[in-house]
């Protein structure tokens, strides 16, 4: 079945620095979604990418979908303490329209 | 709108006991899902439903049963709880499942279950 791998599992960032988390699928995806889960909270939808090579921005967050629609990345610039949490990518399969979640990248920020 | 609600928020069971987790959504969504979240493993799909009266198995269905008698409710049952079922359980719903839009999932606050 479809597998979505996400790296790194943990990211410790100095406040103000940039970082990137990566997501790779074993199969071509229909689209990819990103979610954020604050500590003790539930996943909250951030964005969806559908087109090959698509890039979308939300303030300091930049999301990218690969040309082959098998990988994606989330880049955060000038990290703030409000960015703390776990970021999940989730790939929507072409065949059965089920989301497969990556294991997540847990971000901690040093002030 | 309350969105997606789950009851209970916390529960402790002894091995072999049974329980039902309730999920309710007020967004008129067709699709509903049950996930479990374990450290380092992300969210794994247990069962899902594509509409009232339908259910289907997800990635890790063993030991769980579900029912969707009403469109707004999705119940997850554990008939004989085992320590391996200690986890955080999330319910989610979505309007659609295609790439044309409306397929983002809305999650409930979760149920933290411990099986001793």
SSE diagram, text form:
The complex is a heterodimer of chains A (111) and B (116).
Chain A: E1 4-7, E2 10-14, E3 19-25, E4 29-37, E5 44-49, E6 55-58, E7 61-65, E8 71-76, E9 85-93, E10 99-101, E11 105-110
Parallel strand pairs in A: 2-11
Antiparallel strand pairs in A: 1-3, 3-8, 4-5, 4-9, 6-7, 7-8, 9-10, 9-11
Chain B: E1 4-7, E2 10-13, E3 19-25, E4 31-37, E5 43-49, E6 56-57, E7 65-67, E8 73-78, E9 87-94, E10 106-107, E11 111-115
What do these coordinates show?
- The complex is a heterodimer of chains A (111) and B (116).
- With 111 residues, chain A is mainly β.
- In chain A, 0% of the residues lie in helices and 58% in strands.
- Chain A contains no helices and 11 strands.
- Chain A has strands at residues 4-7, 10-14, 19-25, 29-37, 44-49, 55-58, 61-65, 71-76, 85-93, 99-101, 105-110.
- In chain A, strands 2, 4, 5, 9, 10 and 11 form a 6-stranded mixed β-sheet that branches.
- Chain B has strands at residues 4-7, 10-13, 19-25, 31-37, 43-49, 56-57, 65-67, 73-78, 87-94, 106-107, 111-115.
- In chain B, 0% of the residues lie in helices and 47% in strands.
- The model of chain B has no long low-confidence stretch (mean pLDDT 94).
- In chain B, the strands form 2 sheets. In chain B, strands 2, 4, 5, 6, 9, 10 and 11 form a 7-stranded mixed β-sheet that branches. In chain B, strands 1-3-8-7 form a 4-stranded antiparallel β-sheet, with no helix packed on it.
- Chain B is globular.
- Chain B starts with a strand and ends with a strand.
- Chain B contains no helices and 11 strands.
- With 116 residues, chain B is an all-beta fold.
- In chain B, a hairpin with a 6-residue loop joins strand 5 and strand 6.
- The A-B interface holds A 1, 6, 9, 30-31, 33, 41-45, 48, 50, 88, 90, 92, 97-104 and B 35, 40-45, 48, 58-59, 90, 92, 97-99, 103-110.
